């Protein structure tokens, strides 16, 4: 199942841009958590995960941004057929993910601050971020 439906891509792009602009207006963009409607943030996350999936397709790493989506990216071993979880998993909060996806913060900044949970050999997405 796709993280976002094709028909929702324009709304997702608009939500992503809206989140980015709101975050940049915050007093400290490096800890940005804009007060936007839940649906705007959800669509921004889904759209950005779609962009990541398009940029680095593959079954090797699962990127989870709960509660709004997860995608599998990068080459590597596929999921174990019994538990469907790949050997590499990265989990992020929505605002952390969106700061990274928009280029407001860097992977090393967020990792150093302890806001990224990553398990496996491929636990660094810095070469893929920001998304555009």
UniProtKB/TrEMBL annotation:
Residue ranges occupied by any Bacterial SCP orthologue domain in the UniProt entry: 38-131
Pfam families for the chain: SCP_3 (PF17844)
InterPro entries the UniProt entry points to: SCP_3
Organism this protein belongs to: Bifidobacterium erythrocebi
Official protein name in the record: Bacterial SCP orthologue domain-containing protein
Gene3D superfamilies per UniProt: 3.30.1050.40
């Amino acid at each position: 199942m796709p993280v976002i439906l094709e028909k929702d891509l324009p709304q997702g792009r608009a939500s992503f841009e809206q989140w980015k602009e709101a975050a940049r207006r915050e007093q400290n963009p490096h800890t940005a958590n804009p007060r936007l409607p839940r649906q705007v943030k959800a669509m921004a996350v889904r759209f950005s995960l779609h962009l990541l999936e398009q940029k680095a397709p593959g079954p090797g790493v699962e990127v989870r941004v709960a509660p709004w989506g997860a995608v599998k990216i990068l080459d590597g071993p596929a999921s174990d057929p019994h538990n469907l979880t790949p050997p590499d998993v990265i989990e992020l909060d929505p605002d952390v993910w969106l700061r990274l996806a928009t280029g407001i913060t860097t992977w090393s900044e967020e990792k150093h601050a302890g806001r990224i949970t990553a398990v496996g050999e491929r636990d660094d997405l810095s070469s893929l971020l920001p998304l555009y």
